[in-house]
Amino acid sequence: MGTEIDFVIEGRASNAASTLTVYTTRPDTLGGATFLVVAPEHPALAAITTEGQRAAVDKYVKTVQSETDLGREEQDRPKTGVFTGSYVENPVNKAKMPVWVADYVLAGYGTGAIMAVPAHDERDFAFAIAFDLPVVSVIDPVMVRADAKDKTDFEKRRSIVAIVENQAGEILTINWGPTLGGRLTIGGKIEGNDTAKSTALREIAEETGYHDLELISVGTETVHYKYYAFSKRQAHDTDVTFVHVRLKSDARKAADLDESEKGNFTVEWVSRETAEREITEPLHRYGLEKFILGHSYTGPGILVNSGRFDGLDSTEARAAITEWLESKGIGRRAVKYRLRDWIFSRQHYWGEPIPIIHCPNCGAVPVPDDELPVVLPDIEKYEPTDTGESPLAAVPDWLNTPCPKCHRPARRETDTMPNWAGSSWYYLRYMDPHNDREFASRASLDYWGMVDLYLGGMEHTTLHLLYSRFWHQFLYDRKLVPLPEPYAARRGQGIVLAADGRKMSKSLGNVVNPTDIIERYGADALRLYTMFMAPYEETTPWSDERLNGVARFLHRVWTLAGDLSSASFVTPDSVGYENSLGAFETQVDRATHKVTKKVHDDLATMRFNTVVSSLMEYVNFLSAPDNRRRLLQENARGLRSRTLRTLLLLLAPAAPHITEELWHDLGESGSIHVAAWPTYDPALIKDEIVTVILQVNGRVRSNVLLPADVTEAEQAEAAAADPKVSRYLQGKTITKTIVVPRKLVNFVVRD
Ligand SMILES: [Zn+2]
């Protein structure tokens, strides 16, 4: 969902186009639009271009014609473009905005024209830097550091973060060491009427001694930052201004430090690469990204420099600005679909051949049906070539073939389809793999129907999923498949981030290697932890601490299973031995049936994290000292056996190795993974059961398990029927029956 906005073109060359319609998904950033960009293929380009700029624009469009869309979309390529000579007016702040033509805007995206918001879009930012166009920040970031998320009592303050470069492009940092806060740039509080600039210069001098400095820029944004200052035991809500400074000379005087600072940090100049790797504190990271690494801010925040919309939250502003544009008749809500050209450029030997023959006389001729499929030749060398040409081009026997039309010498198409072409519809072939006349018979397609579940990362939403649906719907339109959709359900899995909350990447050195984890903790612990770490769809950071917790749980299972399956148990002559397990047995069975239902249901709905957590609770319950003692009694033999078996069966899908081993320790010969899955008795878990204490003349004689909705009369009746209680009632007169609902029954009796 986005917004289309009409910009009135001023100073245009002809009357052919009086407005230029742009499409944006970020109408909240309209105030920060400082120029418009149209695609070189835009139909109105000729009309927009002024006579003075026409030659330059025409020349530019010509150079772009040789480029591929894919190349044009690459994030890091140098930005090119030409001014059209025309201007438009920004509806929010009436600023005059130049209209450019540039190849990073594709004709197929939106309307083929974009409003460029360099402060909040990476590519627009790179373009603005390349052509010295204005950058106006319109969203003041709102950031909350993890340690302030649960805090309520915030102290308001204003502060600065200073980013200091020297002539060699190194960054001035303060290294507090790993335990005190890591590597930071310079920060400080703005006092009284001081400015951000004067505060920055003072703080740099006090903390590092450097004082021969020149200002590069003061950031136009205010970052609203909440964090917890551990040393002061105080949560801060601070409005931060960034100051970018350059060192003019190495002149340095003694630093002027607080007692708390002395000796606790070192002042260090580091390369950009080191800074990028080591500065992770979110606020200082923001400064580094914005002022050194050249990234724009694309997150949420509060609107500024946006006229009547100032102060709105950026999410609210998206709707508010669209409504306002609609009321003025210069904008409207719009949905644009975007289908990207697929990569058919990477040539592998093993792709599917494209059944086309190129003839010098007839052009591209399809391979006749009775010669299909075109089969790949057996070759020695299947590596990709240096030229980007398919390895097939080097196999003349296969390559050269007569033209099916004129029978003169011709050549086969050597490009093959990339792997994804096949993966767009291979699932259909599984339904009838030995059919040599069609990809699958209608009978098989009718029988198997849709794929039940499609799993994949979110990146597949605009790639594989999109294309395979496209492929499938084409086949459906040709009446070759019975159903319009290929998949009955889809689930996307989250991403495991590094412990620092960033994406794992080799260059950041924050990658967790599964083999290392398996070496230390075992494959079961790793598997169990990835199931447990978060809901399946959620993206979540890695945590060694929680991995340890999962490993401890497996140790607890191991110990419990060893105890419960050992031959040494508590016999009737032992101290504390209970002749009857009574309510305990029901209590354990109820817990077992409850966890069975929970694991069963949660596996079916892929709530793997709660599968693990409910098994953890169950094991905690069984391991509680009192419960474990009772389970080890001689008379609990049957209970012990069925409880342990069920636990292992339920845990088996999550921890396949340890459960298989323990299963065999129980004397089982087959694999646990083919043993029958435990069932549960719905009656046993239907109602919440309560334990009611039974007393006679105030002395506890027994207890009984009853449904939570038991009436007082039923409660008294059940109490009187209990054999241990009825013994004390025999031949006595009940003078009073005290019933505390769901808790207690006390019979007051006399002879
Ligand atoms: Zn021919």
Q: Which secondary structure elements does this structure contain, and how are they paired or packed?
A:
Blueprint lengths: L1 E9 L8 E6 L10 E4 L6 H4 L2 H14 L4 H5 L7 E9 L6 E7 L10 E4 L5 H10 L7 E6 L9 E12 L5 E5 L1 H4 L2 E2 L1 E4 L6 H13 L4 E6 L4 E7 L4 E14 L18 E5 L1 H7 L3 H10 L9 E3 L10 H15 L2 E4 L17 E2 L2 E4 L3 E4 L29 H4 E3 L6 E4 L3 E2 L1 H5 L2 H4 L12 H7 L5 E4 L6 H14 L12 E4 L2 E2 L16 H8 L1 H10 L7 E2 L2 H22 L17 H22 L3 H16 L1 H7 L5 H15 L4 H10 L16 H5 L2 E8 L2 E9 L4 H10 L1 H7 L3 E8 L3 E7 L1
Parallel strand pairs: 3-5, 7-13, 8-14, 24-25, 26-27, 28-31
Antiparallel strand pairs: 1-2, 1-4, 1-17, 3-6, 4-5, 7-16, 8-11, 9-10, 9-15, 12-14, 13-14, 18-23, 19-20, 19-22, 21-22, 28-29, 30-31
Helix pairs in contact: 15-16, 16-17, 16-19, 17-19, 18-19, 18-21, 21-22
The chain binds zinc ion.
Short description:
This protein is an alpha+beta fold and 751 residues long. It contains 25 helices and 31 strands. The radius of gyration is 36 Å and the shape is globular.
